[in-house]
Amino acid sequence: MASVHVAISTVADGSMYSPQHPDGAAEIAARETWFAKQNLALPDATRVAITYDVDNFCEYRIVGEHDKADGMRGEASARADALITATPGHILFLPVADCVATTLFDAERGVLMLSHLGRHSLEQHGGIRSVEFLVKQYDVNPAKLQVWLSPAPGKQVYPIHKLNGQGMKEAVYEQLLAAGVLRDNINDEAVDTAVDDRYFSYSEYLKGNKPEGRFAMLAVMQ
Fold first, then answer.
1. Phi, psi at residue 121, to the nearest 5°?
2. pTM check: above 0.70
3. Overall fold of domain 4-221
């Protein structure tokens, strides 16, 4: 049965991505160092590449061997709100600013998803739709999914107005549970990035309270 390794970087690891400079040398070096600390390498990874000039924020892409290294040293070849792999050793990598990086893993089916659950995605029920994709494509049982959530800003600084003012994590939990994920199977890094200096926060950067940058989640089956 497959196992999974999930990791979340911090400010101490450096910024993992710049949307203005996808091939930025400092960000690539930070990734390489962080990966190396885990005995991982960039050529084995694929970056979840988010853009906002679209209407659908629940686009999911299954990746294979030919997708390895895509987006790890420059622009990605295709956008997606989540990447999915059934290949052990294929690393999924997602830098985030204020959104919730979410790993979903089914050990029995041997399938791994890394989903970007931000305001736009959650407004379109991205938590539910991520699980539904795995059910449809891989016949997973939602009750057997293991889930990991990255830190995110608190409700008081980042309410989702179209979801009646829910906070990021509040919306993620509600949607995952509605999709059949068990609460006990959700591993939550319950940190408010708006006030915790270990993590970057774009909304706090805009207020002048934090440096600009992105932390990241990676996940890989072993």
1. -65, -45
2. yes
3. CNF1/YfiH-like putative cysteine hydrolases (3.60.140)
